[in-house]
Amino acid sequence: MNPIGNLNKLFDSRIRLGVMSILIVNEEVSFNDLKQMLELTDGNLASHLTTLEENGYLKVHKGFVGRKTNTTYSITKAGEKAFKSHLAALENMIKSIE
Amino acid sequence: MNEQQHLQTLSDIKRIMERSSRFISLSGLSGVWAGLSGLAGAWIAYGWLNSYYNAWDTRGSYSDADYAGLRLKLILLAAGVLLVALIGGTYFTWRRARRNQLPIWDPTSRKVLINVAIPLATGAFFILGLIADNQPALIAPSCLVFYGLALVNTSKYTLSDIRYLGIAEIVLGILNLFFLRRGLYFWTLGFGVLHIIYGIVMWWKYERTAKAALENE
């Protein structure tokens, strides 16, 4: 079995990996909180979030706090599964080298 | 990608997961400070209670005015102790966050505060009710129980060890119910001694080595 085959190409990006790491342990995270935790600019984060959304790994909820828009993100079942198997693949590769 | 990079990636993921879900800057020194404030407050209260009972003995009878005065002084003292403990506690945690280059006001610290605030506010209104009903003996046990519940509740969002401190406070509060009118001793143990022990243990466990590591760099 080729262990690299289990690595998810989408998670080659450290930013996307960071987003998934946050969403897997937090039910719902706002755009601004993601931005703060990952220390990113708006545009940079937004494009990666779109990619993850298009792949069905996260759900977007648009809401309002007062009159300001408040967009929050949460992980989907598919996203959780993909992230976990990516983690498992990483761990397996380390074990196979040892 | 080689083994080293995979290891690095995994540890980054772990770090992000932890930092995004838990407030890890809570300093042990904050606990020690809160404990010292508690002890100082208890010492002052002890003195006031003593002179209150001495005055009662010399007078030979109970005095409404004395009792009302003592009650007001004790409430103000408790508020003062809380304020001093909070200010100092925040300072040490702020200092630790700054050293680790982490924000002190972020989603995790907000979660900690909200989850502490709900049981604590409930307790505050409960205790206001006790004061209104003139049930002073129940105040100390209620403080301990609600504070313990607040800590247990928030332990999911910060250093999980705080759960044990919370459980210990709850146990003390319940015990106090079986030894009513010994509230000051239980209060001193719970808010003074336990905080200091907890703070020292936390500092020893998380901050001592971190400080050494920083100095070695």
The proportion of strand residues of chain A reads 15-25%
The string of secondary-structure elements of chain B, in order, is: HHHHHHH
Low-confidence stretches of chain B: none
What is the C-alpha radius of gyration of chain B, as a whole number of Å? 21 Å
Shape of chain B: elongated
Low-confidence stretches of chain A: none
Number of helices of chain B: 7
Give the beta-strand count of chain A. Answer: 3
Roughly how many Å is the radius of gyration of chain A?
15 Å
Strand order of the largest sheet of chain A: 1-3-2
**What assembly state would you assign to the polypeptide chains in this entry?**
heterodimer
- Structural class by helix and strand composition of chain B: mainly alpha
List keywords for this structure.
heterodimer, A: Arc Repressor Mutant, subunit A, three-stranded antiparallel sheet, B: 217 residues, mainly alpha, 7 helices, 0% strand, elongated
Q: What would a concise description of this structure say?
A:
The complex is a heterodimer of chains A (98) and B (217). Helix content of chain A is 55%, strand content 18%. The radius of gyration of chain A is 15 Å and the shape is elongated.
Q: What order do the helices and strands come in, and which of them pair?
A:
The complex is a heterodimer of chains A (98) and B (217).
Chain A: H1 14-25, E1 29-30, H2 31-38, H3 42-54, E2 58-65, E3 68-75, H4 77-97
Antiparallel strand pairs in A: 1-3, 2-3
Chain B: H1 3-21, H2 28-59, H3 64-99, H4 107-132, H5 139-154, H6 162-178, H7 183-216
Question: What can you tell me about this protein's structure?
Answer:
The complex is a heterodimer of chains A (98) and B (217). Chain A is α+β, with helices and mostly antiparallel strands and 98 residues long. Chain A contains four helices and three strands, in the order αβααββα. Chain A has a single domain, classed as Winged helix-like DNA-binding domain superfamily/Winged helix DNA-binding domain (Arc Repressor Mutant, subunit A, Orthogonal Bundle). Chain A has helices spanning 14-25, 31-38, 42-54, 77-97; strands at 29-30, 58-65, 68-75. A three-stranded antiparallel β-sheet of chain A has the order 1-3-2. The two termini of chain A are 17 Å apart. Chain B has one domain (24-216). Chain B has seven helices and no strands. Chain B is elongated and about 85 Å long. The two termini of chain B are 28 Å apart.
